[in-house]
Design goal:
3 helices
């Protein structure tokens, strides 16, 4: 399970806080949640402080989000290593 919540929203800046495991169907849910913010030009930050694991599809999504200028913050060393590999 993965909890997704808008932690902060100011002007054109949005921070989403994720808690749980970014796996399976949750990967697509995160994509769908992020898309409107990225599409309207908002500066999107994802707070990964509560994320314990990211599967292969989740890693691919994180890389795509970064290419679209989303910021990933507070990743654990394990999760950061997966995404950066």
């Amino acid at each position: 399970m993965l909890k997704i919540e808008v932690a902060e929203r100011r002007d054109d800046r949005v921070t989403l806080r994720l808690e749980g495991r970014l796996v399976g169907p949750w990967v697509d849910e995160v994509r769908r949640t992020c898309e409107p913010f990225l599409g309207n030009g908002s500066a999107l930050t994802l707070d990964f402080s509560g994320v314990s694991f990211v599967d292969r599809d989740g890693v691919a999504l994180c890389r795509r989000l970064r290419r679209r200028h989303a910021t990933l913050r507070h990743c654990s060393p394990f999760v950061k290593e997966q995404i950066d590999a």
